[in-house]
Structures are given as C-alpha cells and as structure tokens.
Here is the input.
Amino acid sequence: MVEIEAVRGKGAREDNNRRIPENGSPVKIHAHNFSFFYGDHLALRNVSLEIRHNQLFTIMGPSGSGKTTFLRALNRLGDLIPNTRHEGSLKIDGTDVYDSRTDIAELRRNVGMVFALPVALPMSIFSNVAHGPRMQGVRHQKELEEIVEKALRDAILWDEVKDRLSDNASRLSGGQLQRLSIARVLALEPEIILLDEPTSGLDPISTLRIEELLWELVERYTIVLVTHNPLQAARIDSRTAFFLMGELIETGSAYDIFTRPKDKRTEDYVSGKFG
Amino acid sequence: MHRSETLVQWSLAVVALSAIAVLALIIIFIFKEGSPIIARLGIAQFITGTKWSPTRGMFGILPMILGSVWVTLGALIIGVPIGLATAIFLAEMAPSRTSQILKSAIQLLAGIPSVVFGFIGLIILVPLIRKWLGGPGFSVLAAGIVLGIMILPTIVSVCYDVFKAVPQAYREGMLALGATRWQTIRMVVLPAARPGIIAAVILGMGRAVGETMAVIMVAGNATKIPISPLAPVRTLTSNIALEMGYAVGEHREALFATGIVLFVIIALLNTLARLVARVEKV
Here is the structure.
C-alpha cells in the first residue's frame, strides 16, 4: 500500500487540471457521424467527437461498446478484418484517414498503438525498439542506439534494461513488456499514441506507472486511451468519453462524468451498476 | 466399480502394442535378412562400392545412395520454394475463402496415386527433357521435378499450419509500427516460423527419399553414379522394387540390406524433424 501511495504521490491527480489543454488548442482528431460495420453488425453508430492536440483522452465503456473499434479505425488496423465498412468522416489534422490517398503504413507510423496484451516481437529488447526505425531506413548503428536509448528513457524502462539490451524481449515481466511496447511506439516519434486497455494484464503498481507515464508523454503527444475500467478513467482524470453499445453517450472532464453525469446510463456505469 | 474402465484401458493397450509390435517385426525381419551380407562384405564395402552386378556377386550401392540424394535434392530445390510461396500466400495474403479452396485443392494433390504422377512424368516430362535438354530424358531432373510436385502437399500444409500458429499479435504489432504486409511476413512471421519450416522440409525430404513408383517410371534406373542432372539414375527404393521379383540368395539379401540403409536414412530424417520441432517449442 505504501508503495502504491508513493507512486501515486508523484501522480497526476493534483495538478492535472492545468494540464488539460484549453478548448482553444487545435483539434487533432475529429470524428463526425462516424459509423463502423463488421459485415451487417453495426459496431459504432454516428460517433462525433473531437480530440485536441496534446490532450490525454480516455474512452471508457464495457466490452462491445465499440471503443476498441474506434481506436482501430484511427490507424486503420480495423482493415485487417474482412468485410468491414464505415460511414461518416474520421479526420486527423483535417485529412480523412479513410481517404483513398492515405498511405496506411505512414498513417500507422504517425498513429502509434499499444495493445492490451504486450507483444514482444520475437527478437532482442534492442531490436524490438529499433525495429520501427530500421524499417524506416535508419541503418546507422550509432543513430539507432540513440533512438533506442531515448525511447526507453521516455518509457521509463531504460534503467531496468540498459545492461541486457541484447536479451530476448520475451524475458521481461508484463509491466516491463508493456513499457517496451510504448518505447517501440515512441521510437517512431508518432504524433498520436493509441492505447487499447494497456494495463488490463498488469498488476496495480505497473498499472500506476503506466498511468503516470501517460501524463508525462502527453506533453509531447496526443494520447487516446481505451479502458473498460471506470476506476482507471477516474484515476487518470482526463477528458473522458463514455461509449455504450456502439454509441457515444457523453463526453466531458472526468470530474463531470463521475460527479454529475448528464445521462442515466453514464451514471449507472460509473456507479458500478453494470459493466 | 472400475472394472469396465480397466478393461477399456487394457484393450487399448493391447491394440496400441500390437501396432508397435508390427513395426518391431518389420525391423527385425529386415535386419535379419539383410545384415548377413553386410557382415560378409563389410559395411564400408557395401555402402561405398560403386558396382552393382548381382550376377557377378558385386553389391555396391553407392550409385543408389547418391541417386537417392540427387533426386531428393532436386525435389527440394523445386518443391520447397514453390511450397513455401504457396503457404505464405494461402496463410498470409489470400482471402479466407480463396485460401480454403486452394488448400483443399492442394490436399487433393496428396491423394493422387504416385503411379499417376509417374505416368504423367513419363509421357509428358521425359519427352520434353529429351527434346529440349538432350540425354535420354529419363533423368535425375525428371525424377526431381515429379517428386518436387509430390512433396508440395506436405510442405504447403505443414508450413500453412506453422504460419497460422504465429500469434496474430506479432502481425498486428508490426503493422501498427507502419510495416507493410511483406515486411511483416519477412521480419516476424518467417523468423518465428523457421523451426516449423525446417521440419516441413525434412518431412518432405523423407517423403521424397521413400517414394518409389513415380521415380522408377521417370528416372531411367541405370546403376551408374549420375554425373549430370540429365543422366539416368536409380534410387535405393527403386533398386529394391525393380529386382525383388526375381532375386534369390545373396542377391535377395543385398536388397534387404538396401532396405536397412533406407530405413536408417529415414529414421535419421524423422528424428531430425522431431528435434527441430522440439527446439521450436522451447
């Protein structure tokens, strides 16, 4: 308990309000009447929302609410499933991600993603992080080393792995692996980072470290976090959207959502009546 | 209370053991029939002898060993790249419906009797080789091509299963980093699947070494060490099948001894495949 408190002491809670960008900061992600279908199944219905530059934006909702679908639409990872289609618009920096001219690989480099289950690509710790830049054509070893060190430092993993960068990445613990996944994304210097329930498989301390890390990263990145856990949304205390059965029920600051929800369904969810 | 349980257990054990007993009997029989001549000639003499002339009492099977090796290599050179490419396409690129249809088509290939492969090789491939490349047409090349096609189902289905076993999370992780589909296959899927691919190649190799009928029909069966891909060749299996009908005495023993050599080669290949597959799991 003491440790948790210690971690939390440095956490975001007390000073996060000033970190939430003013409404004046420019819009980064703009969804307008965005719907998404798997075959005949409507997974997202007419979602409209705005996410601003350097904003930490939390999407919460129970499973099947469409929150992951929304996230995977942002980097077109939803394309991997056959027979999907969308309606409405989903824009990043004013350009529709489904525009036929979109270079999907480029989009995905720019919109990094961290998955629920941390993935160690079957290679060393160093290569896991260096992989993205390598694919980008960075060949110079010195340059790669700098990128890897910076990414690992930013993901607060450097001190734990700096002496064993050539070890196979699968030997890291779950929490370390998830920070490695974040470092892998950071190495590509994206503008947006998507996190799909990044702490669902982690212990409470690792979870707090990741949550704390998000508040540091948001200084430089726009971050969209998906969680099925309202307590996590409350802890993170950022701008929050509540999804339910494919619909966006309401958006607001975590404070508003948790203390004076506008919709009865939001109230039931945050008070634990379902979920 | 557990009597019926015990009964089932024992009956199953008996059935299982009898299957193994049959294997043991085959092994004992081959060795009993074949080992005297190896003992008489000496193992080195038998394996490295280059003359096979039963009527003159000369039993050297080096030409057949090399014949099997060349033909099998030919089969791998043709079968592995095609099989691997097919498996990659089916597992990683084709829409699932296409993939299902093509996969069953390739499975069907495994069901075609080998004599049919041999026959097609005989009436199409052999004349083509004779016409365009020279030589008698009956050759290492012809046998390699026919066998290469015959091992395709093994290579494709084993590789396909191995690719499907590579966690989807690896692919998504790579794609999310902005990798193209081909980069994902090359950098993550193939390395992760490598032990399985090697096992597939070894299994295909075992099939190629063991195949008899199709090879007899297109290989020419000369008992000389093949000096070019266009030269006729006789494999270990062909040697047994061709001469078993009329062999007596020492000649018959020599054919069983050929069987011993074949058996040892295939046992080694199977063990190798199993070892490689085990490395994969660690």
Notes: The longest helix of chain A spans residues 141-154. Residues 2-7+27-270 of chain A form a domain with the Rossmann fold fold (CATH 3.40.50.300). Chain A has one domain: 2-7+27-270. DSSP finds twelve helices and ten strands in chain A.
